[in-house]
Amino acid sequence: MTDTHYPPIDPVALTSDLVRCPSVTPEEGGALELLQELLGAAGFICMRVDRGGVSNLFARWGEKGAARTFGFNGHTDVVPVGDEAAWSHPPFGAVIEDGYLYGRGSTDMKSGVAAFAAAAVDFVRETPPDGAVILTITGDEEGDAFDGTVALLDWMDAQGEAMDVCLVGEPTSPNEMGEAIKIGRRGSMTAWITVTGKQGHAAYPHLANNPMSPLARLMDIYASHSLDEGTDHFDASTLAVVSLRTDNTATNVIPAKGHATVNIRFNDSHSGASISEWLRTEAAAVAKVFGVEIEMEIKISGESFLTPPGPLSEMVSAAVQAETNRVPELSTSGGTSDARFVKDHCPVVECGLVGKRMHAVDERVEIAQVHQLKTIYGRILRSYFG
Predict the structure, then answer these.
(1) Cβ-contact 121, 39 below 8 angstroms
(2) What is the CA radius of gyration of the chain?
(3) pTM (2 decimals)?
(4) CA-CA-CA-CA torsion sign (84, 90, 93, 94)
(5) What ranges do the domains of the chain cover?
């Protein structure tokens, strides 16, 4: 035990300070500077790992290459506020009212970052562990994410820094604290399709080649196809047609081009490459039947992944259960997170707050839950370091 007494870090006050930082992607807004000051004062070695106009922070307490290293990953960037006039309180005002802290990023995920930073500082001051604690905090999770957590992991690899396990602090419970932790995520990809036919007069369709017919046929093939029926830890993969349009505004003209967009969330029975091959094969068959040209651009945002249930998920689940009296579901639902990058570095799980208000107007977090999350994170650290 250390002789110096430090007051515990208040995670709600820290969340408030972070919310007041207008860190809309990719603006740093002062959030990482605030965290660097706090962590540096507690003995963490801090490094800014900025890349491509994106701000990132690496912080380590303990020796590089320690026998045991616990990692945390989170982000301080937030989505735009939208119509500010629709908010009850200023989006970056961090107003506290009726047990809630209001502000953009209060749920996703400045409260999660604050809860872990507070728990980590208290932990290393009170009971310096035999090992190391690393925080990787990015300002690019809500954006393209090319220069956020990826940049941090690239830098860590070059510097010989490593986490043995990692906790991502994204909101994980749908409605009640402790309902779920995430042990994996579905893959995500988007395809943009353009069909080129031949423009002509709508009264003489035989003189044209309408691209909308093959486009509609292709979208029906995609949407009607069952990719799978789910796997042991994942629901069935899904494909959604999210856009179907032509630039033509005239009612008596058959357009030359038609456009569509599909978004796919896929489980661990597929890869981005295998689904891409299926999309292109179906498109080629339709193009041949209708005598049109079909072009396709595909972006794979992340592959599906799973951290199999085991010691890490059991440790996190036990901490959640101890503080909430709930046995959390081991979930793989939801969208993507930066865990999709961390999983190539070390085993990773996600554990955080209730997420139903994230990205919304009047985004807010229940103050009691921020304190509760800090306690959960502190319990996880004590359990990991034994």
Answers:
(1) yes
(2) 24
(3) 0.90
(4) negative
(5) 11-185+305-385, 187-302
Distance between CA 175 and CA 369 in Å, rounded?
12
Question: Which residues touch 83 (CB under 8 Å, ≥6 apart)?
Answer: 361
CA–CA separation, 271 and 253 (whole Å): 40
Length of the chain, in residues: 386
Token pair, residue 71, equals 């990692």
Question: Which of the residues are catalytic?
Answer: 77, 141
One digit per residue, the tens of pLDDT, for the chain of length 386 reads: 445 778 999 999 999 999 999 999 999 999 999 999 999 999 999 999 999 999 999 999 999 999 999 999 999 999 999 999 999 999 999 999 999 999 999 999 999 999 999 999 999 999 999 999 999 999 999 988 889 999 999 999 999 999 999 999 999 999 999 999 999 999 999 999 999 999 999 999 999 999 999 999 999 999 999 999 999 999 999 999 999 999 999 999 999 999 999 999 999 999 999 999 999 999 999 999 999 999 999 999 999 999 999 999 999 999 999 999 999 999 998 888 999 999 999 999 999 999 999 999 999 999 999 999 999 999 999 999 99
Q: Is the dihedral of CA 82, 144, 338, 68 positive or negative?
A: negative
CATH architecture for the domain at 187-302: 2-Layer Sandwich (3.30)
Nearest to 266 by CA among 296, 228, 299, 232: 228
The tokens of 223 are what? 């949407």
Which CATH architecture describes the domain 11-185+305-385?
Answer: 3-Layer(aba) Sandwich (3.40)
